[in-house]
Amino acid sequence: MADAPLSAEAQLARERTQPLSVEYDIESPSGHVPVDSLAIPPPAAVRAYSTDTLVTGIHDQQVGNNALPTTPPTAISLADLEKNIAGDYELVTWLPDDPENPHNWSSLYRWYITIVVAGMVVCVAFGSSVITGDLSGIANEFDVSLEVTCLTTALMVCGFALGPLVFSPLSEMYGRRPMYFASFFLYTVFNIPCALAPNIGALLACRFICGLFASAPLTLAGGSISDIWPIAVRGKAIAYFAAAPYAGPVLGPLVGGWVGLKCGWRWVLWVNMIFAGVMWVLGSLLPETYAPVILGRRAKKMREETGSDKYVTEHELGAKSFKEALKETMVRPFVMLFVEPVLLFMSVYIAMIYAMLYAFFFAYPVVFGETHGFNDGLIGVTFVGILIGAVFAVITTPYLERIYLRTAAKRPGGVATPEDRLPGMIFACPFVPVSLFIFGWTAYPHVSWVGPAIAGIPFGYGMVLIYYAANNYIIDSFSKYVASALAAKTVVRSGGGVGLAMATFPLYHNLGNQWASSLLGFIAIGMCAVPLIFYKWGAAIRARSKAAN
């Protein structure tokens, strides 16, 4: 049967729903997905418009003879929905200026949320490296080698890789806020057995568990920012947020070095617990920002008040069970990693940058401690160079964003291509090998310590800009499967951090400061070809992909 003609009132209500598909996007745990990519059909007709909520009804369309279920289904495909509609079925969506829509919250409140979630990322990244401030104290107390103490950082980073595989599907079902609350509470608590560890085994096990629970903010923070900022103004918030995963690790040895020097390694972990506890309190005060969950609560309230089960949301129609979501989260990222060259090489590049940052946590003690005789506190101060570079990068990213928007405006229809993200990456990538060569070839006892310390500035600058551009390129290239793409990137990135962190001491002791740094520098030079290749041929490669845009 053809759709019934729309009344003037219904037509007006439908027009008021149009901003939904343009401005609002359904958020996944690690990125955003446009509404028009969802397997949910638009309303056949708009039935009712309420002052409390926007309700769109699907009715007057019958393709089959089966009645709609009285209880909202957990998963309905497009084909199923087309076959089973026979009666009224009403979708709960946003009002145009809905005060509960996170995009409509005040700018000040949204910046507060942005700062808190970025602070949580800084906190967990800080926790991964703060222990390097007194590795020698751990080695002496437990009578183990420095190579074994490196596991205190490596195992926590390993937890960063595994945790998102669980927190991603859980956040889709229950929202961001419960994940922040529960995971950060457990992360804070497990710092206690770390600080009280009677042996190296207990310390390593608890550090790994800390990494598992600390991974939730790393997984969800970017999604929270996308929840509250519309696409048109999101770039600035993302630009400032990009430095958080890298500023945190740099602050770790700066604080941990002095605390370890004055109070010992156990107090390093107590300080980390205090920092985590403060951020847990702040995170607990955050509102829920995940739109499908907010709308789901609204629909549930309407069902309770009316006694009718016909009020549902788009997310409820397409929802997966936890088992299905977990399977998809654990399988699809690895499949994409092996069949998508864009995802593979961009993930490897990000992993290389991440690994080199963590390598510095063990290379700096060799260069500044063994070569120049610095104590742990002064070694921590030398990381300020990387932090300065990261700050310069944060200042630069808004300019790169404006260049990107101008490029997009010149494209047909004003729509940018994913490759338009890459000029910023091409500009930034030479800074990394340059910093490594400066670091290595000024690391002589007779050369001032200022040389290797200054080398951190170009590294921090290039590191943040590369991550910002590469991460956006992955999101823009795989918007349909962005959660899986970013999960794959996270696993590869964390794996790189673990591997090179464990190899740094042997590398510098066997090759020497100069050639160990040069080896990393040559690898960084080779990786500079990645953005150049994708800038020229990326569109053709994506055209042959089943998952890429």
UniProtKB/TrEMBL annotation:
<dbReference type="GO" id="GO:1903711">
    <property type="term" value="P:spermidine transmembrane transport"/>
</dbReference>
<feature type="transmembrane region" description="Helical">
    <location>
        <begin position="342"/>
        <end position="366"/>
    </location>
</feature>
<keyword id="KW-0472">Membrane</keyword>
<dbReference type="InterPro" id="IPR020846">
    <property type="entry name" value="MFS_dom"/>
</dbReference>
<feature type="transmembrane region" description="Helical">
    <location>
        <begin position="144"/>
        <end position="167"/>
    </location>
</feature>
<dbReference type="InterPro" id="IPR011701">
    <property type="entry name" value="MFS"/>
</dbReference>
<feature type="transmembrane region" description="Helical">
    <location>
        <begin position="515"/>
        <end position="535"/>
    </location>
</feature>
<keyword id="KW-0812">Transmembrane</keyword>
<keyword id="KW-0813">Transport</keyword>
<dbReference type="InterPro" id="IPR036259">
    <property type="entry name" value="MFS_trans_sf"/>
</dbReference>
<feature type="transmembrane region" description="Helical">
    <location>
        <begin position="237"/>
        <end position="261"/>
    </location>
</feature>
<dbReference type="GO" id="GO:0000329">
    <property type="term" value="C:fungal-type vacuole membrane"/>
</dbReference>
<feature type="domain" description="Major facilitator superfamily (MFS) profile">
    <location>
        <begin position="113"/>
        <end position="549"/>
    </location>
</feature>
<protein>
    <recommendedName>
        <fullName>Major facilitator superfamily (MFS) profile domain-containing protein</fullName>
    </recommendedName>
</protein>
<keyword id="KW-1133">Transmembrane helix</keyword>
<feature type="transmembrane region" description="Helical">
    <location>
        <begin position="179"/>
        <end position="198"/>
    </location>
</feature>
<dbReference type="Pfam" id="PF07690">
    <property type="entry name" value="MFS_1"/>
</dbReference>
<feature type="transmembrane region" description="Helical">
    <location>
        <begin position="267"/>
        <end position="293"/>
    </location>
</feature>
<feature type="transmembrane region" description="Helical">
    <location>
        <begin position="204"/>
        <end position="225"/>
    </location>
</feature>
<feature type="transmembrane region" description="Helical">
    <location>
        <begin position="491"/>
        <end position="509"/>
    </location>
</feature>
<feature type="transmembrane region" description="Helical">
    <location>
        <begin position="111"/>
        <end position="132"/>
    </location>
</feature>
<dbReference type="GO" id="GO:0005886">
    <property type="term" value="C:plasma membrane"/>
</dbReference>
<feature type="transmembrane region" description="Helical">
    <location>
        <begin position="422"/>
        <end position="443"/>
    </location>
</feature>
<dbReference type="GO" id="GO:0000297">
    <property type="term" value="F:spermine transmembrane transporter activity"/>
</dbReference>
<feature type="transmembrane region" description="Helical">
    <location>
        <begin position="449"/>
        <end position="470"/>
    </location>
</feature>
<feature type="transmembrane region" description="Helical">
    <location>
        <begin position="378"/>
        <end position="401"/>
    </location>
</feature>
